[in-house]
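Checklist before submission:
- one chain only
- standard amino acids only
- sequence pasted in full

Submission:
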Amino acid sequence: MNHRTVLALVAAVLLTSALPTITPATASAATGGEVCLFSAPQDVDPDGSGPRAPLGHIGWAFRKGTSRAWIFGATEGMTGKPQMSFMTTGSWNQMLKNFKTRNTGTRRYLKFRCLNTPPGNVTKAQQAARTSARNGYDLFRNNCLTKSVDVFHAYAPTLTNQHLPNPRNRGLSYPPNYYYDKLLPKAGWSASRNL
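Returned file contents:
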C-alpha cells in the first residue's frame, strides 16, 4: 500500500468512529414519550409560618405524541371543584412560561423534572386529567400529586414504581415536596431545573 491509501483508510476510520451511533435504546427514546412534574415548593403550608415546612404542590405535563407540543395542567386549590384544575396545550417554551407566571408568592412554580417514557397514549392521559378535575380532593389521599401520577399511568401504563414511584405510603399520599426531592432522583428522573 502506498502512503496516500493508508492515509485515506485512517481518515475513513476516524470519520466513521466520530459519527454518533444510534442504538435501539436511543432510537426508541427519540420516538417515545416524556413526562414532567412542576414543583411549587412553598405552596400548601397547613400551619402557615409554623414549625412545619410547606408540603408543596405539583403540576404535570406530557409530550403530545412525537410532536413538539405538550399537554399540561394541575389541580390547584383544595376544593375538588373542576374549575380549580386546568389543562392546556402549548410548545415547550409556552409550557415553561405558563408554569413560571401562572401563580405568585408562595404558590409559584419554581422548578421541574422530566422523564423519558415509552410512547404515550395522549387520549387516555387527557381523559385521566379530565377525571381528576371531577373526582374530588383529599389532601391526604387524592391530591395534586396522586392525580398527576394517575395522568402519567394513563399516558404510559408500562411505567412501574421503579421509574414512577407510588405516591402513597400505607394509603396516605407523600407530601409533594418529599416525592419530588427524595423519590424522583432515585427513580431516574432528570436533575431538577429552575423555571
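Reviewer check: The first helix runs from residue 3 to 18.
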